[in-house]
Structure formats: C-alpha cells, structure tokens
C-alpha cells in the first residue's frame, strides 16, 4: 500500500484530529510505512507514540508494541479506543488478563480488528504467545521506552535484551525503537541489541525551552520548603519524586495534613490503589502525586506545572525523563531538585552489593548527577551537552530558564589553568579519568598513578595551589565547551578534542565559574520564588534581624546562633511574624524560644511591616503529621529517665543519626533535653569543656566547621551530641 504525504495528513486528521505533524513525526512515520527499521529519539511530550500509532492504523494487520509498564499500556489502549468505534482496535496482552480476556484478544487479532497489541517483554517471551503471533499478520514491532534495553539506560530490564531473538521467532519484520532520553552510548547499545544498526535514525532536539531548572540544597527542613513551594501552585498539577516507598508515604501524608490534595504512588501499593490514584491525578481530583520512579512513564497529562525531586535521581537520564513530564502542553514547567551529597553516598552504598561492572556504570552515572547539581554554569547547556547536543546559552531558546543564569556566580579568567589541565591530559597519554587527572594536578599519589610512574613526572603536583574541587569544576566546564570529551567505550576516560589540541597550541580566554558547595545539612537555604526569579528572602529585613541578634547575643553573653539560627531569621523574612504566637511557628523557634528571645524581634518586624507597607502571607504554618510530635515526647520522657540514647534509637527502629536529627529539632525549637548522663560515658570532663568552649566562642554552630577545627579529635556524632548539650544548656 503506497501512502503519499497527502494521504498521511488525511489519516492524521481522520484519526487524531490534527492538521499538521510535529517536528520529525512525518519523516519517521514515512520511514516505518516504507518498511525500514527506524529509531526515534525524541523528548517526552514530542509525540513519539503517534509515530507508531498512525502507521498501525493505516497498515493492514496488527502492530506489536513492547512497553515496560502496565499503567502506560492501559493509558495508550484507552486513548486508541477513544478514537475508534471498535473496542478491539487496541488490546493489552499481559499477566493482568484472565483466560476469557486472553481469548477475546486473540479472536480480535485473528479477525483483523486489532491494530495495536501492547505487550510487556515478559509476556512476549511466553512460548504460547510466540506460537500464536507467528501465524498472524503482524505489520511491525515498536519497542517503546527502548532505553530499557541498554545496561547504560536508566531503567535496565534484562528481558529487553532478548527481544531481538523473540522478534526473529515471530518473523523478520520492521522494528521501530523509541526513547525519550538516550546518550550516544545508550543509543549505540539499543541499535546493537535490536540488530538494527542500519536503522533510519530521527533525533529531535532535547531542549525543553519552557522548563525552568533549579537545584536547591537539601536541608533538614526540606518538607517545609516543599509545602511552601506547592502552595505557590494552588490547584495546579505536580509530581514529587522520592527514591523510597517509605519517603513517598511520609511526604504524601505531610502534604495531606497541610491541606494539599496529594496521594502516594509506588510499587508497594496494590494494583487497584495505584490505578485509582493515577486516575485521580488524571481526572484532577487531586493536585499532587508523590511517587517513586514507577509513576509517570508515558502518562499523557499535558498540564503538569511542576516536578520536584525530593531525592536526587540515580542518573541524568532519569532526571531528564522525570522532569520532562512537566509542561508537555508548552506552558510553564518548574523542575526543582533538592540536593545533598549524602543522598549520593546512600546511592553509592546501594551499588556496593552489585557486580563490579554494574557498580562502575552506576557510579559513573551518579558522578554526572553530582556534576549537574553542583555546576554553576547554565544547567540547560550542561544537560543538553550530556545528550550530545550543543546549546547557545546566550541566544538559545529558554536560555534564561535556570537558577544559575538568573542568579549568575562570578566568573574568573582561567586560561592558564585550562592550559595546565589540557597539558596534564596530553602528558598522561589520555589514559585517565577525571579522578586520576585531578590527583596528578594536586600531587596526590594512588596505586594507579604509581604503577604508571606518573608521580615521577614533572607535571605531578603542577596544580596543587588549587583544591581538587576547583579542578573538578574546571574539567566539567572544559568538557561542556568541547575542549575535552569522555571516551564512550572506556567510559569516563578524558580525551582531547581537536579544539582542545588547538587551545594547547594557541590558548585563548576561558571564563569559569566556581561550583556550588553544599557543605552541611544545616546550611541556610535561599528560597527562590515559583517563577525562578531569585531570592524572595527580604534582604533588608535580614540585615536588621542579624544586627538585633548580634546585640541580643552580646547582652546575654552567648554567640548569635544561640539566639536564633540563620534559617529561623530567613523564615521570619518570609512570614513577618508580629506577635509571639506567630513567632513560635517560625522554623526552629517554638514556644520556649519565642518567649525567651522573641519580644524585641517581633517588635522590630512589626515596625518594619508598617513602615514598608508589607503584605504578610495568610498562612505559612506547616502542620506535622503527629508522628514526629509523639516521637519527640517519647525522647524527652526517656532522656529524663536516663535511658541510653542508643536504646531509645533501637526501640523506635531508628539509626543513631536519625535520632540525633530529631533531638536537634527539639532543642532548636527551645525545649531542654538533658543528655549529660550519656555524654559522660562518651567524653571526659576536659573534652566536654573543650567542645563547649569552642561553641561558645564560635560564630557558627555548623558541624563541618567544628570537624575542621578539631581535625579528627572528635567524630560527627560526638560533636552533634555536644552541640545538643550546648544549645540545651545555654539557649533554652
């Protein structure tokens, strides 16, 4: 059957009601109809599904669509049935069907009614299904979410890697592979595994110009910050991603008790509940889905206005895929990720039990996520470079749509440092990954460098005046600017590009920005508004509050942080509390602290509000689920009874760091806890006095600064417990 371009537009209008194709759709459809193996790389929202749906409707026979998720299949089957009077036009064949339903599916295929058959890879491997399909008129195979084939893909499924063999058993038919996210390495892997290396490839731009990208430091008040953010999107749809089912349930519950219509979604819920929650989201009965990565793949909801990552994902492929669910209608989409290097360390621990090859791949992908989170250059340019696409950060579409561009960091001339870096790559014969290059630069020996005798070369230590973090930031920016590249086959090995070699011969100006540093969980967080236009902390009021805090601290003979921490002052600049009751609801204050220190602060804020005609927010009180308040009471009662802290943790199923975190929340809100009995077992009198003196004289209570000061004399837990004692004794 010859289908002309005019025919295609007629069919498009007839079946889907559209009068023109989007992007590369038409060319890819023509390729498939002509019987060519075809490969499509197109961002979420680019209209990938239509590329195989339209040919399936036009051609005589049944197209088989291999899809990884039941929810995705159901969504697409419902959509196909919506455009046809024939219920059997599209079917699912998977483990959820009973015998009668399977018989109906097979009958519709035999009678030529079914145009699209959606199958999971596991269902396709069943011998009975292979035997049945061998005898039917099959038009082509569509492999959706094809990145699942690649071990480098962010959602590796072993069954996908056997697809080529199964397809051969059914017939030598055209194959179309489709994915919304794939690096060159993953693309090569997909084509090789499907046996379609000569496929006609259609690769659309990965740039989603309507999405705003922002990364914020993840503090212990992340839930409060999420609630504040979501409230800016009242009655709008959003998705919040977490890595664990437990965290999904917690966040959903916290949102619910704070008046936000939210539901959880993860693989631990039964199929009926998952389907119900998905439908509630699609039908707009609720606004927010809190989910693991199981949610959203192929879900066709065009008006998702924000995607939040409570936990940073395992790869940039995952991040891109998940953020791509925002703004599919072309409207605004805000992509907010909370980042803490501790989350990366947790993910590294998960990898430690896996085979060595998988660990190497997983760690390489994680380091790309770290690079994205910590970079101060254009996030869009960084992301697109990762997927093999160049972007003009000055004139490109959506160029100003990220936090780093809206709030740029200072740039410094780094021509000489780039020259040093490229020379080290060249002199070490382009055999090293970033880590070894940096160790060579700063003069840090390891087994690999010694075995290659690199430590004996004149270049060893040539960059030791700068920290390793500085060199890592420079490597990332040099990669994006195309002076270096990462070798695909030996993933992570740095190689010079022709442009890099030209730079060595004739160096030119290179401006670099320092990476963000997210050093400590207690670092104050700058809240940015929903439009991404930068800080909404009231800088003028912040200066006045800090000045007052200094005076109060001096009068009482305590460091300023003992009065109120920086995050508390920042929260005051957002909420403008004008009485002690309101002040008690500010982050890290509580009733006790409000009474003890609050009078002068609320008087200052009240005057400031009047003088500057400030419109105060109606309600920024975050309610707890009650779980924490019960736990806090339990801790206070049991420390009063002098029960060992490790026993309290064990009885509540907590790790010690988790329990210490809750204890910190208690004392920072102004309530006393006496843990002297426990500390006396850990540290002698002189040690305690030394640490207490440090906190009394310090300008900051940050643990990292204390660790640096004592240089290994005390560990993290000892210092945190002593900080609890200090704040409890001195401040509360």
What does this structure look like?
With 732 residues, the protein is α/β, with parallel strands linked by helices. The protein has five domains: 199 residues, Rossmann fold (3-Layer(aba) Sandwich); 196 residues, P-loop containing nucleotide triphosphate hydrolases (Rossmann fold, 3-Layer(aba) Sandwich), CATH 3.40.50; 103 residues, Orthogonal Bundle (Arc Repressor Mutant, subunit A); 73 residues, HRDC domain (DNA polymerase, domain 1, Orthogonal Bundle); 104 residues, Arc Repressor Mutant, subunit A (Orthogonal Bundle), CATH 1.10.10.1390. Helix content is 49%, strand content 11%. The strands form four sheets. The chain has a seven-stranded parallel β-sheet, sandwiched between helices. The protein has a six-stranded parallel β-sheet with strand order 8-13-12-9-11-10, with helices on both faces. Helix 12 links the parallel strand 10 and strand 11. The protein is globular and about 85 Å long. About 2% of the residues have low confidence.
């Amino acid at each position: 059957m010859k289908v002309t371009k005019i025919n295609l537009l007629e069919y498009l209008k007839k079946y889907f009601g559209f009068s023109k194709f989007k992007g590369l759709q038409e060319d890819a459809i023509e390729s498939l109809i002509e019987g060519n193996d075809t490969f499509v790389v197109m961002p979420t929202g680019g209209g990938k599904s239509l590329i195989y749906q339209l040919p399936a409707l036009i051609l005589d026979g049944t197209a088989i669509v291999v899809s990884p998720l039941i929810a995705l299949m159901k969504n697409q089957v419902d959509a196909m049935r919506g455009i046809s009077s024939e219920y059997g036009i599209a079917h699912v064949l998977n483990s959820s069907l009973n015998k009668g339903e399977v018989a109906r599916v097979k009958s519709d295929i035999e009678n030529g009614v079914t145009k699209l058959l959606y199958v999971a890879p596991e269902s396709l491997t069943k011998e009975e299904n292979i035997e049945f399909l061998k005898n039917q008129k099959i038009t082509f195979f569509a492999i959706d979410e094809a990145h699942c084939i690649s071990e480098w893909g962010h959602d590796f499924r072993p069954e996908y890697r056997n697809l080529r063999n199964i397809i051969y058993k059914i017939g030598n038919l055209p194959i179309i592979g489709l994915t919304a996210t794939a690096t060159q390495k993953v693309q090569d892997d997909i084509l090789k595994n499907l046996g379609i290396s000569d496929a006609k490839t259609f690769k659309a731009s990965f740039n989603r110009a309507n999405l705003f990208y922002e990364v914020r430091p993840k503090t212990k008040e992340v839930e409060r910050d999420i609630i504040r953010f979501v409230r800016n999107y009242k009655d709008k749809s959003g998705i919040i991603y977490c890595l664990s089912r437990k965290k999904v349930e917690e966040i959903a519950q916290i949102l619910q008790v704070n008046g936000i219509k939210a539901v959880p979604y993860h693989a631990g819920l039964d199929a009926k509940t998952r389907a119900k929650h998905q439908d509630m989201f699609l039908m707009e009965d609720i606004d927010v889905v809190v989910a693991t990565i199981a949610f959203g793949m192929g879900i066709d909801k065009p008006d998702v206005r924000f995607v939040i990552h409570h936990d940073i994902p395992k790869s940039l492929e995952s991040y891109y895929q998940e953020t791509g669910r925002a703004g599919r209608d072309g409207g605004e989409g805000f992509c907010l990720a909370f980042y803490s290097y501790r989350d990366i360390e947790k993910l590294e621990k998960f990898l430690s039990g896996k085979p060595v090859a998988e660990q190497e791949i997983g760690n390489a992908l994680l380091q790309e996520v770290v690079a994205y989170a910590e970079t101060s250059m254009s996030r869009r340019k960084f992301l697109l470079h990762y997927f093999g696409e160049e972007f003009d950060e000055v004139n490109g579409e959506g160029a100003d749509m990220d936090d780093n561009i809206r709030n740029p960091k200072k740039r410094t001339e780094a021509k000489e440092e780039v020259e040093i870096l490229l020379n080290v790559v060249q002199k070490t014969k382009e055999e090293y990954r970033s880590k070894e290059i940096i160790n060579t630069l700063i003069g840090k020996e390891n087994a690999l460098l010694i075995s290659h005798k690199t430590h004996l070369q004149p270049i060893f230590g040539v960059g030791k005046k700068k920290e390793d973090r500085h060199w890592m930031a420079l490597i990332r920016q040099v990669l994006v600017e195309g002076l270096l590249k990462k070798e695909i086959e030996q993933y992570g090995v740095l190689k010079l590009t022709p442009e890099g070699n030209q730079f060595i011969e004739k160096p030119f100006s290179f401006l670099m920005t320092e990476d963000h540093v997210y050093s400590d969980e207690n670092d104050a967080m700058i809240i940015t508004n929903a439009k991404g236009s930068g800080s909404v902390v009231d800088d003028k009021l912040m200066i006045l509050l800090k000045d007052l805090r200094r005076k109060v601290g001096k009068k009482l003979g305590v460091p300023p942080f003992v009065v109120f921490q920086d995050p508390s002052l920042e929260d005051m600049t957002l909420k403008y509390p004008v009485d002690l009751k309101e002040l008690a609801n500010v982050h890290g204050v509580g009733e006790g602290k409000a009474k003890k220190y609050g009078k002068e602060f609320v008087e200052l804020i009240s005057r400031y509000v009047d003088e500057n005609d400030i419109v105060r927010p109606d309600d920024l009180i975050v309610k707890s689920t009650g779980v924490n308040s019960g736990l806090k009471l339990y801790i206070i009662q049991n420390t009063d009874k002098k029960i060992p802290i490790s026993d309290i943790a064990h009885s509540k199923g907590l790790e010690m760091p988790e329990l210490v975190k809750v204890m910190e929340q208690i004392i920072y809100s102004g309530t006393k806890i006496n843990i002297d009995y426990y500390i006396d077992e850990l540290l002698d009198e002189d040690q305690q006095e030394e640490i207490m003196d440090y906190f009394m004289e310090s300008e900051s209570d940050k643990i990292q600064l204390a660790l640096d000061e004592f240089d290994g004399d005390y560990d993290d837990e000892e210092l945190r417990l002593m900080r609890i004692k200090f704040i409890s004794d001195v401040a509360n």
